[in-house]
C-alpha cells in the first residue's frame, strides 16, 4: 500500500475529558434530553468538504463495559451496520499504559465501499480513545480524526461522547454525500448503546446463575448431600 498523499490536514483530538475538548457541551437543556434517553447530535459543515459530528448519549451500563465495546475493534463488523471489515495490523502497549492500534477498515454506504487505514490511541485510565488516519498507507478518504470518551455516572450508568471530522471520498457522487453524512451521524453512538446494554444484561444473567449455583451448593453441603 502506498503512503497517503499528505501527513494530515485536520488537527487531531487530544486525549482529555470532554470539558477540556469542547467546553460546556452539556447544557441544562442537553442534560435533560440525555436524561430522557435521547441522544444529542451536532453536525457542522466545515471548509473543503469536511463535516464535524459530535454526539453524546447516556447508557444504562457501567463505564468500563461501555469503553470495552468501543475499543474491541475486531467486533465492529458484527456490531455496526455497514462495517464490512476491521483488520488490525498493529497493536502495541506503552509503559505509560497507552495502547496504539492500527486497523484497516472497509465500510459500505449503500453501494459505495470505502477503505481506510486508521491509527487509534487508547488511554484506559481515563477511558478515552482518539483516532486519525495512518498516513503511511493510502486511504480513500482525504482525512479523518475522531474522539471517544466514556464518563461514569455511577455504578450502572455512563455517558459516552463521540466526535469526528471527516470527508467522503472525492469519487462519491454529489447526490449521495449528504445521505452518507446523515448515516454516519445516526450510527455514531447508537450501536454502543445497543451493544453495551446487551453485554450488561448478559453479565447480570451470568452472575445470577452463579449465585443460584452457589446457593444450591451451600444447601447441599448443609444437608450433607
TrEMBL record:
Gene3D superfamilies reported for this sequence: 3.30.530.20
InterPro entries to which the protein is assigned, alphabetical: START-like_dom_sf
CDD domains in alphabetical order: SRPBCC
Protein name: Coenzyme Q-binding protein COQ10 START domain-containing protein
